Backbone:
């Protein structure tokens, strides 16, 4: 019976060792992912390098490539992809990350190739379909882009990349009702996407829903309060909403941030024209066209400036005839 005891003891020690190693591996993976989520990329890479043998090549390269994509280190990212492929690892997660890496490097053929390899291993994984959708979107094939985004959302209806991608495709197609639905879902997940708030704001403005448009630009400002264009766009929206005093405040903020924010001066000119503050209106108009000559043509046809057009000063600043203004703009464009 002695040999039975010895074998049993060895087996127990083997199990203890196995679970000990696996527990350490699990703890190390959790630590690496925690560091990654906190954007402590250098420390994550140091941990990956130190524990590479324990973590395994699949996890090592998958997370390393993801970090290099985040940090936009294209050269190191592509080198990591090459090394991972040379190691002959077959992993859906790794192929997906390689696909995304090639997308970031603008090598769309390879991005599509490795997205397909990922799908071959796991066709219930939503991310590679979103990668394909992004590729087809940038290649100008909206039909294929939407097809892949739909497949991704069929697997995971909350996948951010697919919600955003489908929203953009629908925006380009001017399918604003459907577009709004997907972009709003995306903003619930990513509450700091300035581009998404801008698209929604412009969409609402196009539909003359000025209140909703203003809220979107206010959301942009809450994310980043240093953007002059966000303030002058908000000012313009408030102007159309009829909230002229708030519009002026927003336009003044744009100018505080950028003294050469000529479009903000133009929008102020409109408001002063409606208020019949003629001197202030002309001062703003002069400043606007001094920096952006094309505003002369807009001013010439702008009914909001009718209170200024009765004065000879308007013609001095803008011009007498539309054809003359266009000729001036063509000369200016040729000189540039």
Residues:
């Amino acid at each position: 019976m002695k040999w039975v005891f010895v074998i049993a003891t060895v087996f127990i020690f083997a199990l203890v060792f196995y679970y000990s190693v696996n527990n350490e591996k699990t703890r190390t993976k959790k630590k690496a992912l925690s560091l990654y989520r906190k954007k402590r990329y250098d420390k994550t890479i140091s941990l990956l390098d130190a524990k590479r043998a324990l973590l395994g090549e699949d996890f090592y390269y998958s997370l390393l490539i993801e970090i290099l994509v985040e940090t936009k280190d294209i050269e190191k990212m592509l080198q990591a992809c090459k090394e991972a492929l040379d190691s002959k690892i077959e992993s859906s997660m790794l192929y997906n990350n390689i696909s995304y890496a090639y997308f970031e490097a603008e090598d769309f053929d390879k991005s599509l190739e490795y997205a397909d390899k990922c799908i071959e291993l796991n066709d219930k994984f939503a991310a590679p379909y979103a990668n394909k959708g992004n590729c087809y979107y940038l290649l100008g094939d909206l039909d294929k882009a939407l097809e892949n985004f739909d497949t991704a959302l069929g697997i995971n209806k909350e996948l951010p990349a697919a919600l955003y991608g489908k929203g953009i495709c629908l925006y380009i197609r001017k399918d604003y009702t459907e577009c709004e639905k997907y972009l709003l879902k995306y903003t619930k997940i990513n509450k700091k996407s300035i581009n998404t708030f801008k698209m929604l704001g412009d969409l609402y403005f196009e539909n003359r829903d000025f209140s909703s448009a203003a809220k979107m630009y206010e959301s942009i400002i809450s994310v980043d309060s240093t953007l002059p264009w966000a303030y002058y766009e908000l000012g313009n929206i408030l102007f159309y909403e009829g909230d002229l005093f708030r519009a002026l405040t927003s336009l003044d903020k744009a100018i505080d941030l950028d003294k050469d924010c000529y479009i903000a001066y133009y929008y102020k000119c409109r408001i002063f024209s409606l208020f019949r503050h003629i001197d202030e209106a002309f001062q703003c108009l002069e400043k606007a066209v001094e920096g952006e000559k094309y505003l002369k043509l807009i001013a010439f046809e702008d009914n909001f400036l009718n209170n200024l057009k009765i004065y000879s000063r308007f013609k001095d600043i803008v011009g007498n005839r539309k054809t003359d203004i266009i000729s001036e703009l063509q000369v200016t464009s040729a000189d540039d």
